[in-house]
Amino acid sequence: MRLSAVALLLSVLISSLSPGQGILEAYNTNLKCRCMQETSQVVRIPNIHRLRILPPGNGCPKTQIIIQLRNKTLVCLNPAAKWVQQFVARVKSRNFHSTAAAPVMKKVP
Asked: Which residue intervals define the domain Chemokine interleukin-8-like in the entry (predicted)?
């Protein structure tokens, strides 16, 4: 009886580690997207404080455009909206530079 319980537990453990986990992960890739809802509504340019463009990757299959308004609220924009594409192109053409990454200090033994 004890041997059959161990065998049953071992078979359940092995079946839970099967490659089927990749299927579940493929369906849940949206869990890592920051934007759950996007808007196509026009936002007045003076109200925009900061723009972030997140390319596809790290579990999210789509480009995300996030703006921070002057009142500190975050809004996700629809990248397919015509005005959003024009706005992003205008910002990129002005050659805005992001701040440089902080230098990494190495420990000396």
From this structure: 30-91
